[in-house]
UniProtKB/TrEMBL annotation:
Protein name: Sodium/proline symporter
Catalysed conversion reaction: L-proline(in) + Na(+)(in) = L-proline(out) + Na(+)(out)
Pfam family for this entry, one: SSF
Annotated source species: Psychrosphaera algicola
Compartment(s) where it occurs, according to its Swiss-Prot or TrEMBL record: Cell inner membrane; Cell membrane
Domain of life: Bacteria
Transmembrane segments: 6-25, 74-93, 125-148, 160-185, 192-214, 234-255, 276-295, 315-337, 368-387, 399-417, 424-442, 454-472
Length: 495
Protein backbone atom coordinates (compact mmCIF):
# COMPACT_ATOMS: atom_id res chain seq x y z
CA UNK A 1 0.00 0.00 0.00
CA UNK A 2 1.56 3.28 -1.12
CA UNK A 3 1.53 6.30 1.16
CA UNK A 4 0.27 9.64 -0.11
CA UNK A 5 2.77 11.90 1.64
CA UNK A 6 0.90 15.06 0.66
CA UNK A 7 -2.17 13.85 2.51
CA UNK A 8 0.01 12.92 5.51
CA UNK A 9 1.40 16.46 5.61
CA UNK A 10 -2.06 18.01 5.47
CA UNK A 11 -3.34 15.71 8.23
CA UNK A 12 -0.37 16.60 10.45
CA UNK A 13 -1.05 20.27 9.80
CA UNK A 14 -4.68 19.86 10.81
CA UNK A 15 -3.61 18.10 14.01
CA UNK A 16 -1.29 21.02 14.82
CA UNK A 17 -4.13 23.53 14.41
CA UNK A 18 -6.47 21.55 16.64
CA UNK A 19 -3.73 21.25 19.27
CA UNK A 20 -3.27 25.04 19.24
CA UNK A 21 -7.01 25.49 19.56
CA UNK A 22 -7.08 23.17 22.57
CA UNK A 23 -4.15 25.01 24.19
CA UNK A 24 -5.83 28.38 23.69
CA UNK A 25 -9.07 27.06 25.14
CA UNK A 26 -7.22 26.17 28.33
CA UNK A 27 -5.43 29.53 28.49
CA UNK A 28 -7.79 32.30 27.40
CA UNK A 29 -11.51 31.59 27.17
CA UNK A 30 -12.80 32.37 30.65
CA UNK A 31 -14.97 35.26 29.42
CA UNK A 32 -15.97 37.05 26.23
CA UNK A 33 -13.19 39.62 26.57
CA UNK A 34 -10.62 36.82 26.42
CA UNK A 35 -12.52 34.84 23.80
CA UNK A 36 -13.00 37.82 21.44
CA UNK A 37 -9.86 39.91 22.12
CA UNK A 38 -7.37 37.71 23.96
CA UNK A 39 -7.63 39.85 27.08
CA UNK A 40 -5.54 42.53 25.28
CA UNK A 41 -2.37 40.60 26.13
CA UNK A 42 -1.09 39.56 22.69
CA UNK A 43 2.63 40.14 21.98
CA UNK A 44 3.98 42.28 19.10
CA UNK A 45 5.37 39.43 16.97
CA UNK A 46 2.16 37.43 17.17
CA UNK A 47 0.20 40.62 16.48
CA UNK A 48 2.28 41.36 13.37
CA UNK A 49 2.08 37.94 11.76
CA UNK A 50 -1.52 37.48 12.85
CA UNK A 51 -2.50 40.76 11.17
CA UNK A 52 -0.52 39.86 8.07
CA UNK A 53 -1.77 36.30 7.73
CA UNK A 54 -5.39 37.22 8.37
CA UNK A 55 -5.05 40.04 5.84
CA UNK A 56 -3.50 38.08 2.98
CA UNK A 57 -5.84 35.05 2.92
CA UNK A 58 -6.05 32.66 -0.01
CA UNK A 59 -5.56 35.41 -2.53
CA UNK A 60 -1.88 35.66 -1.54
CA UNK A 61 -1.15 32.15 -2.82
CA UNK A 62 -3.96 31.83 -5.36
CA UNK A 63 -5.40 35.18 -6.44
CA UNK A 64 -2.23 37.30 -6.61
CA UNK A 65 -0.04 34.66 -8.31
CA UNK A 66 -2.93 34.08 -10.72
CA UNK A 67 -3.11 37.81 -11.52
CA UNK A 68 0.67 37.95 -12.02
CA UNK A 69 0.49 34.82 -14.20
CA UNK A 70 -2.01 36.60 -16.45
CA UNK A 71 -0.86 40.22 -16.45
CA UNK A 72 2.83 40.02 -15.54
CA UNK A 73 4.50 42.89 -13.74
CA UNK A 74 1.35 45.03 -13.92
CA UNK A 75 0.15 43.36 -10.71
CA UNK A 76 2.97 45.10 -8.84
CA UNK A 77 0.83 48.23 -8.44
CA UNK A 78 -1.60 46.26 -6.33
CA UNK A 79 1.31 45.02 -4.21
CA UNK A 80 2.80 48.49 -3.75
CA UNK A 81 -0.55 49.95 -2.79
CA UNK A 82 -1.10 47.23 -0.19
CA UNK A 83 2.33 47.66 1.42
CA UNK A 84 1.93 51.44 1.67
CA UNK A 85 -1.60 51.08 3.03
CA UNK A 86 -0.52 48.57 5.69
CA UNK A 87 2.41 50.75 6.76
CA UNK A 88 0.28 53.89 7.10
CA UNK A 89 -2.35 51.86 8.96
CA UNK A 90 0.27 50.92 11.58
CA UNK A 91 1.29 54.58 11.89
CA UNK A 92 -1.98 56.51 12.10
CA UNK A 93 -4.64 53.97 13.14
CA UNK A 94 -2.99 51.35 15.35
CA UNK A 95 -1.72 53.45 18.30
CA UNK A 96 -4.80 55.62 18.71
CA UNK A 97 -7.21 52.74 18.23
CA UNK A 98 -5.44 50.63 20.87
CA UNK A 99 -5.63 53.41 23.47
CA UNK A 100 -9.03 54.79 22.44
CA UNK A 101 -10.88 51.46 22.57
CA UNK A 102 -9.56 50.72 26.05
CA UNK A 103 -10.49 54.17 27.36
CA UNK A 104 -13.92 53.90 25.71
CA UNK A 105 -15.09 51.48 28.41
CA UNK A 106 -12.96 48.62 27.03
CA UNK A 107 -14.70 48.35 23.66
CA UNK A 108 -14.37 44.82 22.26
CA UNK A 109 -15.65 45.42 18.72
CA UNK A 110 -15.38 48.12 16.05
CA UNK A 111 -19.14 48.92 16.13
CA UNK A 112 -18.94 49.17 19.94
CA UNK A 113 -16.02 51.60 19.65
CA UNK A 114 -17.91 53.67 17.06
CA UNK A 115 -20.90 53.91 19.37
CA UNK A 116 -18.90 54.74 22.50
CA UNK A 117 -16.93 57.33 20.54
CA UNK A 118 -20.13 59.35 21.04
CA UNK A 119 -20.75 58.19 24.63
CA UNK A 120 -23.51 55.75 23.74
CA UNK A 121 -23.91 52.01 24.28
CA UNK A 122 -26.95 51.65 22.04
CA UNK A 123 -27.05 53.67 18.81
CA UNK A 124 -28.11 53.44 15.19
CA UNK A 125 -24.42 53.65 14.25
CA UNK A 126 -23.60 50.49 16.19
CA UNK A 127 -26.51 48.63 14.64
CA UNK A 128 -25.67 49.67 11.07
CA UNK A 129 -21.96 48.94 11.48
CA UNK A 130 -22.60 45.47 12.89
CA UNK A 131 -24.99 44.61 10.05
CA UNK A 132 -22.40 45.75 7.49
CA UNK A 133 -19.75 43.58 9.18
CA UNK A 134 -21.95 40.49 9.17
CA UNK A 135 -23.02 40.91 5.52
CA UNK A 136 -19.59 41.68 4.06
CA UNK A 137 -17.74 39.15 6.20
CA UNK A 138 -20.08 36.38 5.14
CA UNK A 139 -19.05 37.09 1.53
CA UNK A 140 -15.41 37.54 2.53
CA UNK A 141 -15.39 34.22 4.39
CA UNK A 142 -16.92 32.58 1.34
CA UNK A 143 -13.92 33.71 -0.74
CA UNK A 144 -11.63 31.75 1.58
CA UNK A 145 -13.81 28.67 1.29
CA UNK A 146 -13.73 28.98 -2.51
CA UNK A 147 -9.93 28.91 -2.25
CA UNK A 148 -10.13 25.83 -0.01
CA UNK A 149 -12.43 24.08 -2.46
CA UNK A 150 -10.06 24.85 -5.34
CA UNK A 151 -7.07 23.56 -3.39
CA UNK A 152 -8.59 20.20 -2.56
CA UNK A 153 -10.11 19.63 -5.99
CA UNK A 154 -6.86 20.57 -7.76
CA UNK A 155 -4.30 18.94 -5.46
CA UNK A 156 -6.07 15.84 -4.18
CA UNK A 157 -8.55 15.02 -6.96
CA UNK A 158 -11.47 15.42 -4.56
CA UNK A 159 -14.70 17.27 -5.23
CA UNK A 160 -14.86 21.03 -4.82
CA UNK A 161 -17.61 20.68 -2.20
CA UNK A 162 -15.46 18.29 -0.13
CA UNK A 163 -12.70 20.92 -0.11
CA UNK A 164 -15.12 23.56 1.13
CA UNK A 165 -16.41 21.33 3.94
CA UNK A 166 -12.93 20.18 4.98
CA UNK A 167 -11.67 23.76 5.16
CA UNK A 168 -14.59 25.14 7.11
CA UNK A 169 -14.67 22.12 9.45
CA UNK A 170 -11.10 22.56 10.72
CA UNK A 171 -11.36 26.35 10.98
CA UNK A 172 -14.59 26.20 12.94
CA UNK A 173 -13.12 23.56 15.26
CA UNK A 174 -10.11 25.55 16.49
CA UNK A 175 -11.94 28.90 16.42
CA UNK A 176 -14.83 27.62 18.50
CA UNK A 177 -12.40 26.04 20.97
CA UNK A 178 -9.80 28.76 21.51
CA UNK A 179 -11.26 32.03 20.27
CA UNK A 180 -8.97 35.00 19.62
CA UNK A 181 -5.86 33.47 21.18
CA UNK A 182 -6.21 30.33 19.06
CA UNK A 183 -6.76 32.46 15.95
CA UNK A 184 -3.72 34.63 16.71
CA UNK A 185 -1.38 31.74 17.51
CA UNK A 186 -2.44 29.73 14.47
CA UNK A 187 -2.05 32.89 12.37
CA UNK A 188 1.53 33.21 13.62
CA UNK A 189 2.33 29.63 12.63
CA UNK A 190 0.52 30.05 9.33
CA UNK A 191 2.39 33.27 8.59
CA UNK A 192 5.73 31.49 8.99
CA UNK A 193 4.61 28.64 6.72
CA UNK A 194 3.38 31.09 4.07
CA UNK A 195 6.66 33.01 4.10
CA UNK A 196 8.79 29.88 3.61
CA UNK A 197 6.52 28.59 0.84
CA UNK A 198 6.50 31.87 -1.10
CA UNK A 199 10.30 31.93 -1.10
CA UNK A 200 10.76 28.24 -1.96
CA UNK A 201 8.30 27.81 -4.84
CA UNK A 202 9.50 30.56 -7.24
CA UNK A 203 13.15 29.84 -6.39
CA UNK A 204 12.90 26.12 -7.16
CA UNK A 205 10.89 26.81 -10.34
CA UNK A 206 13.57 29.27 -11.45
CA UNK A 207 16.44 26.80 -11.03
CA UNK A 208 14.55 23.80 -12.39
CA UNK A 209 15.12 24.54 -16.09
CA UNK A 210 17.67 22.00 -17.37
CA UNK A 211 18.24 22.16 -21.11
CA UNK A 212 19.61 25.08 -23.09
CA UNK A 213 16.48 25.22 -25.22
CA UNK A 214 14.24 25.34 -22.18
CA UNK A 215 16.47 27.92 -20.50
CA UNK A 216 16.32 30.16 -23.55
CA UNK A 217 12.54 29.80 -23.79
CA UNK A 218 12.16 30.41 -20.05
CA UNK A 219 14.28 33.56 -20.19
CA UNK A 220 12.30 34.88 -23.14
CA UNK A 221 8.95 34.22 -21.47
CA UNK A 222 10.13 35.62 -18.14
CA UNK A 223 11.35 38.85 -19.73
CA UNK A 224 8.12 39.19 -21.69
CA UNK A 225 6.08 38.99 -18.48
CA UNK A 226 8.34 41.45 -16.67
CA UNK A 227 7.87 44.01 -19.45
CA UNK A 228 4.35 43.04 -20.49
CA UNK A 229 2.64 45.78 -18.57
CA UNK A 230 5.28 48.46 -18.86
CA UNK A 231 2.85 50.59 -20.84
CA UNK A 232 -0.28 49.84 -18.84
CA UNK A 233 -3.14 52.31 -18.71
CA UNK A 234 -2.93 55.01 -16.06
CA UNK A 235 -6.53 54.38 -14.93
CA UNK A 236 -5.86 50.66 -14.41
CA UNK A 237 -2.68 51.29 -12.41
CA UNK A 238 -4.38 53.86 -10.15
CA UNK A 239 -7.25 51.44 -9.60
CA UNK A 240 -4.84 48.74 -8.38
CA UNK A 241 -2.70 51.13 -6.34
CA UNK A 242 -5.60 52.35 -4.23
CA UNK A 243 -6.32 48.90 -2.83
CA UNK A 244 -4.17 50.09 0.08
CA UNK A 245 -6.94 52.47 1.20
CA UNK A 246 -8.93 49.46 2.30
CA UNK A 247 -6.68 48.76 5.30
CA UNK A 248 -8.18 51.52 7.44
CA UNK A 249 -11.56 49.80 7.50
CA UNK A 250 -10.83 46.07 7.76
CA UNK A 251 -12.21 44.93 11.16
CA UNK A 252 -10.34 41.58 11.14
CA UNK A 253 -7.03 43.45 10.76
CA UNK A 254 -7.45 46.49 12.98
CA UNK A 255 -8.89 44.39 15.79
CA UNK A 256 -5.33 43.04 16.14
CA UNK A 257 -4.21 46.52 17.13
CA UNK A 258 -6.85 46.54 19.86
CA UNK A 259 -5.54 43.25 21.29
CA UNK A 260 -1.81 44.01 21.54
CA UNK A 261 -0.55 44.24 25.12
CA UNK A 262 0.56 47.89 24.81
CA UNK A 263 0.55 50.60 22.15
CA UNK A 264 4.28 51.03 22.90
CA UNK A 265 4.92 47.64 21.31
CA UNK A 266 3.32 48.61 18.00
CA UNK A 267 6.59 49.88 16.39
CA UNK A 268 8.08 46.40 16.81
CA UNK A 269 4.93 44.83 15.41
CA UNK A 270 5.09 47.24 12.46
CA UNK A 271 8.67 46.32 11.59
CA UNK A 272 7.97 42.60 11.74
CA UNK A 273 4.66 42.86 9.90
CA UNK A 274 5.79 45.07 7.04
CA UNK A 275 8.98 43.08 6.40
CA UNK A 276 6.94 39.86 6.35
CA UNK A 277 4.47 41.46 3.97
CA UNK A 278 7.09 42.76 1.52
CA UNK A 279 8.86 39.40 1.22
CA UNK A 280 5.58 37.49 0.94
CA UNK A 281 4.13 39.74 -1.76
CA UNK A 282 7.33 39.63 -3.82
CA UNK A 283 7.24 35.85 -3.51
CA UNK A 284 3.60 35.74 -4.65
CA UNK A 285 4.31 37.94 -7.69
CA UNK A 286 7.35 35.88 -8.64
CA UNK A 287 5.35 32.67 -8.25
CA UNK A 288 2.95 33.91 -10.92
CA UNK A 289 5.56 35.39 -13.26
CA UNK A 290 8.17 32.62 -12.93
CA UNK A 291 5.40 30.03 -13.04
CA UNK A 292 3.95 31.41 -16.28
CA UNK A 293 7.39 31.41 -17.88
CA UNK A 294 8.04 27.89 -16.63
CA UNK A 295 4.73 26.54 -17.95
CA UNK A 296 5.31 28.00 -21.41
CA UNK A 297 8.96 26.94 -21.61
CA UNK A 298 8.18 23.27 -20.87
CA UNK A 299 5.16 23.26 -23.17
CA UNK A 300 2.40 22.41 -20.70
CA UNK A 301 -1.01 24.00 -20.11
CA UNK A 302 -2.72 25.43 -17.03
CA UNK A 303 -6.48 25.79 -17.19
CA UNK A 304 -6.86 28.01 -14.11
CA UNK A 305 -4.12 30.64 -13.47
CA UNK A 306 -5.09 30.79 -9.77
CA UNK A 307 -3.76 27.24 -9.32
CA UNK A 308 -0.18 28.01 -10.46
CA UNK A 309 1.20 27.71 -6.90
CA UNK A 310 -0.49 24.34 -6.50
CA UNK A 311 0.79 23.12 -9.87
CA UNK A 312 4.40 24.09 -9.18
CA UNK A 313 4.28 22.55 -5.69
CA UNK A 314 3.15 19.21 -7.09
CA UNK A 315 5.60 18.89 -9.98
CA UNK A 316 8.75 20.37 -8.42
CA UNK A 317 8.83 18.95 -4.87
CA UNK A 318 8.78 15.60 -3.10
CA UNK A 319 5.18 14.76 -2.07
CA UNK A 320 6.00 15.19 1.62
CA UNK A 321 7.36 18.70 1.00
CA UNK A 322 4.58 19.42 -1.47
CA UNK A 323 2.08 18.60 1.24
CA UNK A 324 3.53 21.27 3.50
CA UNK A 325 3.56 23.75 0.62
CA UNK A 326 -0.09 23.03 0.04
CA UNK A 327 -0.56 23.49 3.77
CA UNK A 328 0.72 27.04 3.19
CA UNK A 329 -2.35 27.69 1.06
CA UNK A 330 -4.55 26.29 3.77
CA UNK A 331 -2.66 28.49 6.23
CA UNK A 332 -3.44 31.58 4.19
CA UNK A 333 -7.05 30.56 3.77
CA UNK A 334 -7.74 29.50 7.33
CA UNK A 335 -5.99 32.43 9.00
CA UNK A 336 -8.37 34.85 7.33
CA UNK A 337 -11.51 32.74 7.69
CA UNK A 338 -10.97 32.26 11.42
CA UNK A 339 -10.44 35.99 11.96
CA UNK A 340 -13.56 36.85 9.99
CA UNK A 341 -15.68 34.30 11.76
CA UNK A 342 -14.59 35.62 15.14
CA UNK A 343 -15.26 39.27 14.22
CA UNK A 344 -18.67 38.36 12.80
CA UNK A 345 -19.48 36.41 15.93
CA UNK A 346 -18.41 39.32 18.15
CA UNK A 347 -20.73 41.68 16.29
CA UNK A 348 -23.65 39.28 16.47
CA UNK A 349 -23.21 38.83 20.22
CA UNK A 350 -21.74 42.10 21.54
CA UNK A 351 -23.40 44.55 19.13
CA UNK A 352 -26.75 42.92 18.42
CA UNK A 353 -27.79 40.23 20.90
CA UNK A 354 -26.50 41.81 24.12
CA UNK A 355 -27.50 45.35 23.14
CA UNK A 356 -30.93 44.79 21.65
CA UNK A 357 -32.15 41.46 23.03
CA UNK A 358 -30.56 40.53 26.36
CA UNK A 359 -28.44 43.17 28.08
CA UNK A 360 -27.90 41.12 31.27
CA UNK A 361 -26.72 37.89 29.68
CA UNK A 362 -24.27 35.94 31.86
CA UNK A 363 -20.59 35.54 30.85
CA UNK A 364 -21.07 31.78 30.46
CA UNK A 365 -24.04 32.24 28.14
CA UNK A 366 -22.16 34.90 26.14
CA UNK A 367 -19.39 32.40 25.44
CA UNK A 368 -21.86 29.74 24.32
CA UNK A 369 -23.65 32.17 22.01
CA UNK A 370 -20.36 33.47 20.59
CA UNK A 371 -19.29 29.95 19.68
CA UNK A 372 -22.69 29.19 18.18
CA UNK A 373 -22.52 32.32 16.03
CA UNK A 374 -19.17 31.19 14.62
CA UNK A 375 -20.90 28.04 13.36
CA UNK A 376 -23.87 29.97 11.91
CA UNK A 377 -21.74 32.44 9.92
CA UNK A 378 -19.55 29.58 8.68
CA UNK A 379 -22.61 27.71 7.44
CA UNK A 380 -23.92 30.73 5.51
CA UNK A 381 -20.50 31.38 3.97
CA UNK A 382 -20.30 27.73 2.93
CA UNK A 383 -23.57 28.04 1.01
CA UNK A 384 -22.19 31.04 -0.91
CA UNK A 385 -18.94 29.20 -1.64
CA UNK A 386 -20.80 26.13 -2.92
CA UNK A 387 -22.71 28.37 -5.35
CA UNK A 388 -19.33 29.25 -6.99
CA UNK A 389 -20.30 32.87 -7.72
CA UNK A 390 -16.80 34.01 -8.65
CA UNK A 391 -13.06 33.56 -8.33
CA UNK A 392 -11.08 34.19 -5.17
CA UNK A 393 -9.82 37.62 -6.17
CA UNK A 394 -13.28 38.77 -7.31
CA UNK A 395 -14.96 37.89 -4.01
CA UNK A 396 -12.10 39.36 -1.97
CA UNK A 397 -12.10 42.61 -3.94
CA UNK A 398 -15.82 43.14 -3.34
CA UNK A 399 -15.60 42.60 0.42
CA UNK A 400 -12.33 44.57 0.69
CA UNK A 401 -13.90 47.58 -1.02
CA UNK A 402 -17.04 47.29 1.10
CA UNK A 403 -15.18 47.45 4.41
CA UNK A 404 -12.60 49.94 3.19
CA UNK A 405 -15.22 52.46 2.05
CA UNK A 406 -17.83 51.87 4.76
CA UNK A 407 -15.50 51.87 7.77
CA UNK A 408 -12.17 53.34 6.64
CA UNK A 409 -13.19 57.03 6.54
CA UNK A 410 -15.24 56.71 9.75
CA UNK A 411 -12.34 55.10 11.64
CA UNK A 412 -9.92 57.80 10.48
CA UNK A 413 -12.27 60.67 11.33
CA UNK A 414 -13.15 59.05 14.68
CA UNK A 415 -9.49 58.98 15.67
CA UNK A 416 -8.30 62.27 14.19
CA UNK A 417 -11.24 64.73 13.94
CA UNK A 418 -12.98 65.76 17.14
CA UNK A 419 -15.81 67.54 15.23
CA UNK A 420 -17.12 64.23 13.86
CA UNK A 421 -20.76 63.72 14.83
CA UNK A 422 -22.73 60.51 15.17
CA UNK A 423 -24.98 61.56 12.27
CA UNK A 424 -21.91 62.19 10.13
CA UNK A 425 -20.50 58.75 10.98
CA UNK A 426 -23.79 57.01 10.13
CA UNK A 427 -24.04 58.86 6.83
CA UNK A 428 -20.44 57.97 6.01
CA UNK A 429 -20.92 54.23 6.65
CA UNK A 430 -24.07 54.13 4.53
CA UNK A 431 -22.59 56.26 1.73
CA UNK A 432 -19.52 54.04 1.47
CA UNK A 433 -21.42 50.75 1.50
CA UNK A 434 -24.10 51.91 -0.95
CA UNK A 435 -21.53 53.35 -3.37
CA UNK A 436 -19.61 50.07 -3.39
CA UNK A 437 -22.81 48.16 -4.13
CA UNK A 438 -23.93 50.47 -6.95
CA UNK A 439 -20.44 50.75 -8.46
CA UNK A 440 -19.71 47.05 -8.32
CA UNK A 441 -23.07 45.38 -8.98
CA UNK A 442 -25.43 47.69 -10.91
CA UNK A 443 -24.86 47.59 -14.72
CA UNK A 444 -24.76 51.31 -15.47
CA UNK A 445 -22.55 51.29 -18.58
CA UNK A 446 -24.09 51.11 -22.08
CA UNK A 447 -22.68 47.62 -22.69
CA UNK A 448 -24.31 46.23 -19.56
CA UNK A 449 -21.10 46.24 -17.52
CA UNK A 450 -20.65 47.74 -14.07
CA UNK A 451 -18.50 50.78 -13.30
CA UNK A 452 -16.06 48.47 -11.49
CA UNK A 453 -15.12 46.98 -14.86
CA UNK A 454 -13.48 50.33 -15.65
CA UNK A 455 -12.25 51.40 -12.21
CA UNK A 456 -12.12 49.62 -8.85
CA UNK A 457 -14.90 50.87 -6.60
CA UNK A 458 -12.85 51.41 -3.44
CA UNK A 459 -11.41 54.86 -4.24
CA UNK A 460 -14.64 56.58 -5.40
CA UNK A 461 -16.61 55.03 -2.53
CA UNK A 462 -13.93 56.07 -0.01
CA UNK A 463 -13.95 59.67 -1.28
CA UNK A 464 -17.75 59.89 -1.33
CA UNK A 465 -17.96 58.52 2.21
CA UNK A 466 -15.36 61.04 3.44
CA UNK A 467 -17.15 63.94 1.76
CA UNK A 468 -20.50 62.91 3.23
CA UNK A 469 -18.96 62.63 6.71
CA UNK A 470 -17.61 66.17 6.59
CA UNK A 471 -20.78 67.73 5.14
CA UNK A 472 -23.18 66.01 7.54
CA UNK A 473 -20.94 66.60 10.60
CA UNK A 474 -20.73 70.32 9.77
CA UNK A 475 -24.53 70.52 9.59
CA UNK A 476 -25.38 68.54 12.73
CA UNK A 477 -24.98 69.03 16.44
CA UNK A 478 -21.47 69.44 17.84
CA UNK A 479 -20.31 66.40 19.91
CA UNK A 480 -20.89 66.62 23.65
CA UNK A 481 -18.19 67.75 26.08
CA UNK A 482 -17.49 64.21 27.34
CA UNK A 483 -16.84 63.04 23.77
CA UNK A 484 -14.30 65.83 23.33
CA UNK A 485 -12.68 64.97 26.67
CA UNK A 486 -12.24 61.32 25.63
CA UNK A 487 -10.72 62.42 22.33
CA UNK A 488 -8.19 64.66 24.13
CA UNK A 489 -7.44 61.99 26.77
CA UNK A 490 -6.53 59.54 24.01
CA UNK A 491 -4.32 62.14 22.36
CA UNK A 492 -2.53 62.91 25.63
CA UNK A 493 -2.01 59.22 26.43
CA UNK A 494 0.04 58.85 23.27
CA UNK A 495 2.15 61.99 23.68
Amino acid sequence: MSIDYSVVSIVLYFVLLIAIGFYAMRQSTSNNSEYLLGGRQVGPNVTALSAGASDMSGWMLLGLPGAAYTTGIGSIWLAIGLVIGAYVNYLIVAPKLRVYTELANDSLTIPEFMSRRFMKDKSHLRLIASVVIILFFTVYTASGLVAGGKLFSSAFATSYSFGVFATVGIVVAYTVMGGFLAVSLTDFVQGVIMLIALIAVPYVAFISIDTVAQSTSFGSQFWELLTKEANFEIVASISLFYWGLGYFGQPHIIVRFMAISSHKKLPQARRVGINWMIVSIIGALLTGIVGAAYIKSVGTQLSDPETIFIHLSQILFHPLVAGWLLAAILAAIMSTISSQLLVSSSSLVEDLYKVYFSENVSPEKSLIISRACVVVVAALASLIALAELGGVLKLVSSAWAGFGAAFGPVILFSLWWKQLTEQGAIAGVLAGAITVFIWGYIPLLPNGLTLSSEFYELLPAFLISSLVIVIVSKRTQVPCEKTTELFELTKNSLS
